[in-house]
Amino acid sequence: MRRCRVIPRESFIQLIEKSNRPGVNIAKVALGLVDLFIAEGFHPIGEFLYVPDLSSLRILHGVGKTPIYGILGRFEEKQPKGDKKDVEVELCPRTALSRMIRQVQSTCSAEFLVGFESEFILLTSTKPVVPLHVHSWSASAGMLNGSKEAEILEDIADSLQASGIKIELFHPEAAPGQYEIVTGPLSPLEAADALVYTREIIVNVAAKHGVHATFAPRPFMYSPGTSTHAHISVHDTANRTHCKKIPNELSLLEKGFLAGVLDHLPAIAAITLPIPASYKRAVDGTWSGGTYVSWGTENREASIRLTNVASPNSRRYECRFIDSTANPHLALAAMLGAAMTRMKMISEKSDVQLEIQDAGTKQAAIMTEEERKAKGITRRLPLSSEEARSNLRNDRELCEVLGTELVDAFLSVNKTLEDALMQDKTEDDQLKRLVEYY
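Request: output the structure for the sequence above.
Response:
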C-alpha cells in the first residue's frame, strides 16, 4: 500500500534549503495502521521524521495534470534513543534494505542487479469485477490499434520512459485484462524504488482513462494469477578467481545466493506472499512456481528459475515466489539477508553444496516421492499466510539477520491485515476489497 504526503514545490524547496533537518512528521502508528485497525504493539503516540532521499527524486509523468515529482525517504527517530546518537528506525523498509545491501557488500563482497516484471489487470468495474478486455497470452489482439487497452498501455509506457524508468518490454498476459511490463535492471534499492513509482504511474494512467488497475494476486480463479517476478543477478566485487563466472556453471556466489534463499524460502514467503489471496496464486500447475521449494533451469514451475545459464553476463535467477501485495523493499531485504547466510561462508578453499538439485524439465508436483527425494526436494512452501507467519517466526537465523524488532512488527501488522481483508462476509465483497486495496 503506497502512502504519500503532497507538498507544493515552494514549500518543498523551503523545507530542503532552510530546515536544519529536512523531513515530514509522520505518526509512529502509521507503520502499524491497517484501515483504522491498529496492529498489536503500535500506539497512537509519538512521531517519526520521514527524511527525503534526494537521490530518489524523479518526475512522475502520468500522475497529475501539472508536473508531479516523486521522492522516497526513510523513517528516523526525531530524537536519538538513550545514549545512542543513531536515529535509524529498524522498522523502515528502505532502511532495512539499505542495511542489508551494506552487510552483503562488506561480508560477502557481492552486489546485485534486480529487474521486475509488473503484472496487472485492467478492470472496468470492481463490483462485480469485470476485465477491460479478454485475450490470450501475448496475443496482439490484446492491444489492437484504437482500442482503449492499447491507448492505456501506450500511455503507461510513454509515462514510464519519460519518468526515467527503463522498459525492457510489455505485452498482454494470460488472465482477462492482464498485462505485463518488464523494467530494470538496477541496484536493489533503485529497483525497489522504481517499482513503487511504476505501480503509481500504472494506476494513475489507468484512472485517467476511467479504468481501475489492480495488482491483486488472482482475481479470476479460472486463469493464472498476477505476480511480481524478480530477476536477480549476482556479482563479485572483489574480482576473486574462485568466484569468476563461466558459461554453463554457477559461480560460488551464485550457488551461495541460491542455497541461502532456498534454505529460508518457507519463511521468506511470509513477506513475499503476505496475504491469504497470495496462496490462491501460488499453487501447482498455474505457472506460479508451484508449492515445492525447488529450482530449475528454465523451469517456470519451480520457485526459482535459472535462466541464460550459458551466458555469464546475462545469467540470472527469476524468483517467482513474489506477488504485488509484498513490500518490494522488505521482499528484497529478506532475500538478500537469506542469501547472505550462505554467501558469507564462501572461501577459496570451500565449495557451496546445493542440497536441492536442478529440477530439470519436470514439475516437482508431478514427480514421484522418490524422484523428489533424489533431487533433494523435500519441503514445501507454506499453503497459507498463517503457516507462513509461523515459518518466519520460527526461522531464528533469518529473524536475527532481519532484526527481531522488524520481524515482530511485520508479523503483527500482517495478522491485522489478514483480519481486515477477511472481514467481509461474502466472497464477492472480499474480492471487491482485494482489487480496490491492491
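The chain has twelve helices and 16 strands.
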